[in-house]
C-alpha cells in the first residue's frame, strides 16, 4: 500500500476557547475518563520519553496508575534504562494518543520517586504473577534465553508461593506536570491545540497554538 495515500479527515470534536481559563488537570482527567469509558484497550497507556546523561532520547509505553492533582503516577523498575535515565535527568515527557477520539495530549514535567510505603501498597495489590515477575526480572538487562528467564521466575515463585515483598529496585514515580497540550483533530488539518504552562506562582497560563 502506498503510505502517502493513507489519509483521513479528523471530524470528531473541537476545543473551545473558554478552555483557556480552565484547569488543565481537570480537563485531562475528563478526557481520560472519556477514553476509558470508550472501552479502548490499554486506555491508560502513554509513551514515556526520557533523556540519557549523554542527551539521547528514548521512549517506551508505560501505564498510568494514578492521577493525583498535577502528578501522573506510574510504576517500573528503578534500575531499568528509563530509571537510569531519570536518575541522571528527571525531565520527562508523557504522550497520550487516543485515536478513536482523534486526540493527543503532550505533557512535560519533572519526575521523582513516590514514597516507599506507597510503592509497597501498590506492589502488594498486584497479582502474584506480576510480583514474582518484578523480582525475577532485571528489567532492561540482557539475558541469554527466554528459558533462563522462565527458570528465574519459577525460582522466585517456588521460594515465595504466597507473595513477595516489593524489591527495592521496583516502585513508583510521579511526573509533576508543568506543561500540557491538548490536541483535537479537525477538518482540513486545521487542528485545535491549546497549551498550558505552569507559571512560577503555580498558576496556569494558556495559549492556542497553530496546528
Ligand atoms: C501496553 C504496555 C504497557 C506497559 N506498561 C509498563 C509499565 O507500566 N511499566 C513498565 O515498567 N513497563 C511497561 N511496559 C514495558 C515498557 O514499554 C518497556 O518495555 C520496559 O519498561 C523497559 O523499558 P526501558 O528499558 O526503556 O526501561 C509496557 C509496555 C506496553 C506495550
What does this protein look like?
The chain is of the alpha+beta class and 211 residues long. It has one domain: Electron Transport, Fmn-binding Protein, Chain A (Pnp Oxidase, Chain A), CATH 2.30.110.10. The chain is built from 5 helices and 9 strands; from the N terminus they run αββββαββαααβββ. Strands 1, 2, 3, 4, 5, 6, 7, 8 and 9 form a 9-stranded antiparallel β-sheet that branches. Helix 4 packs across helix 5. The model has no long low-confidence stretch (mean pLDDT 96).
How many strand segments? 9
β content, as a range? 25-35%
Bound ligands, each once: flavin mononucleotide
Euclidean distance between termini CA atoms:
27 Å
Features:
single chain, 211 residues, alpha+beta, Pnp Oxidase, Chain A, 9-stranded antiparallel beta sheet, 5 helices, binds flavin mononucleotide
Topology:
Elements: H1 24-37, E1 45-51, E2 57-63, E3 66-68, E4 71-77, H2 81-88, E5 91-98, E6 103-113, H3 116-125, H4 128-136, H5 146-159, E7 170-184, E8 192-198, E9 204-208
Antiparallel strand pairs: 1-2, 1-5, 3-4, 4-7, 5-6, 6-7, 7-8, 8-9
Helix pairs in contact: 4-5
Amino acid at each position: 500500500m502506498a503510505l502517502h495515500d493513507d489519509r483521513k479527515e479528523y471530524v470528531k470534536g473541537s476545543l473551545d476557547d473558554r478552555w483557556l481559563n480552565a484547569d488543565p488537570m481537570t480537563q485531562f482527567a475528563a478526557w481520560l475518563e472519556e477514553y476509558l469509558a470508550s472501552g479502548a484497550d490499554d486506555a491508560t497507556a502513554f509513551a514515556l520519553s526520557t533523556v540519557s546523561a549523554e542527551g539521547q532520547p528514548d521512549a517506551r509505553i508505560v501505564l498510568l496508575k494514578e492521577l493525583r492533582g498535577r502528578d501522573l503516577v506510574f510504576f517500573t523498575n528503578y534500575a531499568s534504562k528509563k530509571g537510569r535515565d531519570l536518575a541522571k535527568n528527571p525531565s520527562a515527557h508523557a504522550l497520550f494518543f487516543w485515536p478513536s477520539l482523534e486526540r493527543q495530549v503532550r505533557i512535560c514535567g519533572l519526575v521523582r520517586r513516590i514514597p516507599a510505603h506507597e510503592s509497597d501498597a501498590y506492589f502488594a495489590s498486584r497479582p502474584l504473577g506480576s510480583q514474582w515477575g518484578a523480582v525475577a526480572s532485571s528489567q532492561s538487562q540482557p539475558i541469554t534465553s527466554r528459558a533462563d528467564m522462565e527458570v528465574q521466575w519459577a525460582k522466585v515463585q517456588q521460594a515465595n508461593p504466597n507473595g513477595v515483598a516489593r524489591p527495592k529496585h521496583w516502585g513508583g514515580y510521579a511526573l509533576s506536570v508543568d506543561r500540557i497540550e491538548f490536541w483535537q483533530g479537525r477538518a482540513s488539518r486545521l487542528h485545535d491545540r491549546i497549551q498550558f504552562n505552569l507559571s512560577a506562582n503555580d498558576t496556569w497560563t494558556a495559549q492556542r497554538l497553530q496546528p
